[in-house]
């Protein structure tokens, strides 16, 4: 049997999940506190931030995006344009998520939220009944944050107020995304860590196994 690279990019939905095994060595930690934290992660997931790689070396992508936005211009090269627009949207999303982590609402639905399932790009508004949907507790359904584009936030209530406050604070980036014709999309605020298990092969080694969607 042979395996080799292929040139085609994996499309969304082409595979169900990614499994990981991580081994941390030279561990020096309170194992009781560490176990408690891991149990919390298994139950609640983690904030679904875009990682630092999205923003480039020392945040260079964001700096480039701000420069183009200030000049009300777009890169001519399609790949560069796509990268910088994605960077700007990711930055606005992270700011909204950070605010909801601070106020504790990132892992629970509130009236006015837009909810989405883990593996879906569609979303629907949360009323009183939706906020008590049992699928929220099992990390199948989640509140979402904005991937900014044309038009105001489709959320309502306190959610819309927060998202519009962040967008107003970054109005140059927001207006740049709108002029670029980006569509408003949503991204779940929390990332479920599936099948999370851990053990200590040795006193100073922690091995983690988990699945990400």
Automatic annotation (TrEMBL):
<dbReference type="InterPro" id="IPR020103">
    <property type="entry name" value="PsdUridine_synth_cat_dom_sf"/>
</dbReference>
<dbReference type="InterPro" id="IPR001656">
    <property type="entry name" value="PsdUridine_synth_TruD"/>
</dbReference>
<keyword id="KW-0413">Isomerase</keyword>
<comment type="similarity">
    <text>Belongs to the pseudouridine synthase TruD family.</text>
</comment>
<dbReference type="GO" id="GO:0008033">
    <property type="term" value="P:tRNA processing"/>
</dbReference>
<dbReference type="GO" id="GO:0005829">
    <property type="term" value="C:cytosol"/>
</dbReference>
<dbReference type="InterPro" id="IPR050170">
    <property type="entry name" value="TruD_pseudoU_synthase"/>
</dbReference>
<protein>
    <submittedName>
        <fullName>tRNA pseudouridine synthase D</fullName>
        <ecNumber>5.4.99.-</ecNumber>
    </submittedName>
</protein>
<dbReference type="GO" id="GO:0009982">
    <property type="term" value="F:pseudouridine synthase activity"/>
</dbReference>
<keyword id="KW-0819">tRNA processing</keyword>
<dbReference type="InterPro" id="IPR043165">
    <property type="entry name" value="TruD_insert_sf"/>
</dbReference>
<feature type="domain" description="TRUD">
    <location>
        <begin position="45"/>
        <end position="191"/>
    </location>
</feature>
<dbReference type="Pfam" id="PF01142">
    <property type="entry name" value="TruD"/>
</dbReference>
<dbReference type="InterPro" id="IPR042214">
    <property type="entry name" value="TruD_catalytic"/>
</dbReference>
<dbReference type="GO" id="GO:0001522">
    <property type="term" value="P:pseudouridine synthesis"/>
</dbReference>
<dbReference type="GO" id="GO:0003723">
    <property type="term" value="F:RNA binding"/>
</dbReference>
<dbReference type="GO" id="GO:0140098">
    <property type="term" value="F:catalytic activity, acting on RNA"/>
</dbReference>
<dbReference type="InterPro" id="IPR011760">
    <property type="entry name" value="PsdUridine_synth_TruD_insert"/>
</dbReference>
């Amino acid at each position: 049997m042979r395996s080799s690279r292929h040139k085609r990019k994996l499309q969304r939905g082409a595979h169900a999940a990614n499994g990981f095994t991580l081994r941390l060595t030279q561990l020096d930690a309170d194992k009781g506190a560490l176990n408690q934290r891991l149990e919390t992660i298994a139950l609640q997931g983690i904030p679904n931030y875009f990682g630092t790689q999205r923003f480039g070396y020392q945040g260079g992508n964001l700096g480039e995006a701000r420069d183009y936005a200030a000049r009300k211009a777009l890169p001519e090269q399609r790949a560069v344009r796509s990268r910088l627009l994605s960077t700007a949207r990711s930055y606005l999303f992270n700011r909204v998520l950070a605010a909801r982590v601070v106020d504790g609402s990132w892992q629970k639905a509130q009236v006015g939220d837009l909810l989405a399932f883990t593996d879906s790009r569609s979303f629907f508004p949360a009323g009183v009944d939706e906020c008590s949907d049992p699928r929220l507790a099992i990390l199948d359904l989640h509140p979402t944050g904005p991937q900014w584009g044309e038009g105001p936030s489709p959320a309502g209530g306190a959610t819309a107020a927060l998202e519009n406050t962040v967008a107003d604070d970054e109005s140059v980036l927001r207006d740049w995304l709108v002029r670029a014709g980006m569509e408003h999309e949503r991204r779940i605020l929390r990332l479920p860590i599936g099948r999370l298990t851990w053990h200590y092969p040795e006193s100073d080694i922690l091995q983690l196994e988990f699945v990400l969607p």
